[in-house]
């Protein structure tokens, strides 16, 4: 185990339930997910059944949460999935999960920097500020690093403000649709009926829907800084899943009512980018389109800040476990944040963005689309390991917990997540919009990355058995 005291520990009792929920929901990026991800789910998936697809995904992650939160009191530190997997399967599997999680969060982060740059360029070009996409990406990176090195509660307040603004404008649109009595077909429960949810195209819809839950582990990764983590983390996990699921199901149901269940596929296919904006302009007025465009940028910034903080704590934990440069386990003397890890992470992000820029990769069709697909696969693979690890951990000793909670629910979650991984892998070209051989190899790349991490851990066991034995034990 690692003994870290004083300025090398994250600042405890810094955040409460609301802050943690903000981190998770901000990582889900409500405005970006609704405006950007659900139109193709309607256009290419099982159209009217998209709201029910979110309910299915939410049910899967609630099952996942049952075992995940049951194990939370037995996991310390800021290692997130790494710590959970290590406690169940040992250090080799823990490192395998850690490198896949790092792959997921780095991939989605790089993709969102590119997406922010695309929208920022479109917003600022008419004002005479015309920078290349990578210029805007590096500018927002600097802002993220600045806020990320501050006290974690500051980031929580920023994320909370952005999230509430996003939810407010989308709920306003939902309310306007309902008060207007829907569209040409009126109001109904279409979208939740089993015949619509389990219709052909569900698999394609789920590919886009599952991406809305990336960033899920942000609840546990802040345990060291949370007030009463044994209670706060489980509550935050359930609140976040229910909030994400309920909000996305409501918003997709409302928009399908506006266009009509039989016409929503055609409307989405005709204008993926204008699918929600056109409805807002019609029902709320042109002002709402400008507000939604602005909130789309703040949504992306909030998402970047959330992932930046998450990755900082991964680096912090791995450095504290002597698996990375030890200086990354140092925290800011005033803010209690892992600021060295933040600077290292920022340098890596800048280098990757520069590589894409030098290769003249298109920021939307290549950088964002490819990275989003890779991230979804990598996080699903990590979550499969976590669920299986919960079973292994409690199989030896249930610690007074019901077998339904610590064995049955995680087993169902493991099967569901494995099916989701296979589903996304089979439809990866649809998710990324590319048939490139590189993209088609993403599922194998994720698995190979995990195996490489596991083999590296076994090498550590041979070289330093004491270090290996302490992996995943937290900063006790």
3D structure, described in words:
Helix 16 packs antiparallel against helix 17 and helix 16 (363-396) crosses helix 20. Residues 1-7 have low confidence and may be disordered. 73% of the residues lie in helices and 0% in strands. The chain is built from 21 helices and no strands. By secondary structure, the chain is an all-alpha fold.
Layout of strands and helices, then pairs:
Blueprint: H1 17-28, H2 30-44, H3 50-71, H4 81-89, H5 91-124, H6 133-148, H7 152-179, H8 194-197, H9 202-210, H10 218-221, H11 229-259, H12 264-270, H13 275-283, H14 286-320, H15 339-358, H16 363-396, H17 403-426, H18 428-432, H19 437-440, H20 442-463, H21 465-469
Helix pairs in contact: 1-7, 1-11, 1-14, 2-9, 2-12, 2-14, 3-9, 3-11, 3-16, 3-17, 4-5, 4-16, 5-6, 5-14, 5-16, 5-20, 6-14, 6-15, 7-11, 7-14, 13-14, 14-15, 16-17, 16-20
Top keywords for this entry?
21 helices, mainly alpha, 476 residues, single chain
């Amino acid at each position: 185990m690692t003994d870290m005291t004083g300025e090398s520990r994250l600042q405890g009792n810094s955040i409460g339930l609301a802050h943690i929920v903000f981190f998770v929901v901000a990582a889900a990026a409500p405005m970006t997910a609704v405006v950007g991800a659900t139109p193709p789910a309607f256009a290419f998936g099982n159209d009217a059944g998209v709201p029910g697809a979110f309910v299915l995904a939410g049910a899967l992650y609630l099952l996942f949460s049952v075992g995940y939160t049951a194990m939370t009191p037995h996991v310390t530190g800021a290692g997130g999935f790494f710590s959970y997997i290590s406690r169940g399967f040992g250090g080799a599997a823990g490192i395998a999960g850690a490198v896949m999680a790092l792959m997921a969060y780095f991939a989605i982060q790089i993709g969102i920097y590119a997406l922010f740059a695309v929208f920022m360029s479109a917003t600022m070009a008419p004002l005479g500020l015309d920078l290349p996409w990578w210029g805007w990406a590096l500018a927002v990176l600097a802002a993220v690093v600045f806020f990320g090195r501050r006290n974690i509660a500051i980031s929580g307040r920023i994320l909370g403000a952005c999230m509430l603004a996003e939810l407010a404008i989308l709920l306003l649109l939902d309310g306007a649709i309902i008060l207007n009595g829907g569209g040409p077909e009126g109001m109904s429960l279409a979208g939740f009926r089993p015949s619509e949810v389990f219709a052909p195209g569900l698999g394609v819809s789920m590919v886009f829907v599952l991406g809305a839950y990336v960033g899920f582990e942000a609840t546990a990764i802040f345990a060291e800084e949370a007030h009463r983590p044994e209670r706060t983390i489980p509550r935050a996990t359930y609140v976040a899943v229910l909030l994400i699921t309920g909000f996305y199901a409501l918003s997709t149901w409302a928009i399908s009512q506006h266009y009509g269940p039989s016409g929503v596929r055609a409307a989405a296919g005709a204008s993926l980018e204008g699918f929600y904006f056109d409805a807002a302009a019609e029902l709320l007025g042109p002002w709402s389109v400008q507000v939604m465009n602005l909130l789309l940028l703040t949504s992306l910034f909030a998402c970047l800040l959330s992932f930046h903080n998450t990755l900082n704590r991964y680096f912090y934990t791995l450095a504290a476990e002597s698996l990375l440069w030890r200086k990354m386990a140092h925290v800011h003397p005033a803010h209690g944040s892992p600021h060295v890890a933040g600077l290292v992470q920022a340098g890596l992000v800048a280098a990757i963005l520069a590589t894409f820029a030098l290769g003249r990769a298109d920021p939307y069709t290549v950088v964002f689309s490819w990275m989003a697909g890779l991230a979804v696969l990598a996080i699903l693979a990590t979550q499969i390991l976590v669920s299986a690890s919960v079973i292994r951990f409690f199989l030896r000793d249930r610690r007074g917990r019901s077998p339904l909670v610590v064995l049955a629910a995680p087993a169902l979650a493991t099967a569901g997540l494995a099916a989701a991984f296979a589903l996304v892998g089979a439809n990866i070209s649809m998710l990324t919009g590319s048939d490139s051989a590189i993209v088609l190899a993403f599922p194998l790349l994720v698995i190979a990355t995990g195996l490489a991490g596991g083999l590296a851990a076994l090498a550590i066991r041979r070289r330093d058995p004491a270090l290996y034995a302490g992996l995943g034990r937290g900063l006790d």
